[in-house]
Write a structure and sequence with these properties.
single chain, alpha+beta, two-stranded antiparallel sheet, 5 helices, flat
Length: about 140
């Protein structure tokens, strides 16, 4: 096969930390209408985006399949890949809990990590027995 893009566990850890810093420091240009000045005002705001393995792969220029084939299934990288997955989940949860992400998207995002919005309702479903007590 092809040589790996990331050559060591340390290099993967460093790339992951760099990606998280990138996600935590996005700059977004916003526009608002100022009633006071009767004009549109623009501003650069620092925003955070959610960590994902897919986003990390795009950030480093690696196909998602190549990431999973070369790193996720390799015992040497198992610890950092597990940590990356856990940090993605915790990051999404924290951003919902602090209101950084709209709660309407919680079900969609968190289903990715095995959470569900469905509630199981267990009912007592004893069989109904009908007796025919007619004597012949």
């Amino acid at each position: 096969g092809r040589p790996r893009k990331i050559k060591s566990v340390k290099a993967l850890e460093e790339a992951w930390e760099e990606y998280k810093n990138y996600c935590d420091n996005q700059v977004v240009l916003t526009h608002e209408f100022s009633q006071k000045n009767s004009e549109f005002v623009s501003a650069n705001l620092k925003k955070k985006i959610t960590y994902t393995i897919e986003g990390f792969c795009v950030y480093i220029g690696l196909a998602r399949k190549a990431f999973y084939d070369n790193y996720a299934d390799d015992e040497r990288y198992a610890h950092i890949v597990t940590r990356m997955r856990e940090e993605c989940e915790l990051d999404a949860r924290a951003k919902f809990e602090t209101g950084q992400l709209p709660t309407q998207l919680a079900g969609l995002w968190m289903s990715k990590y095995g959470y569900t919005t469905n509630q199981k309702v267990e009912a007592d479903v004893s069989p109904i027995v009908i007796k025919d007590d007619v004597l012949t």
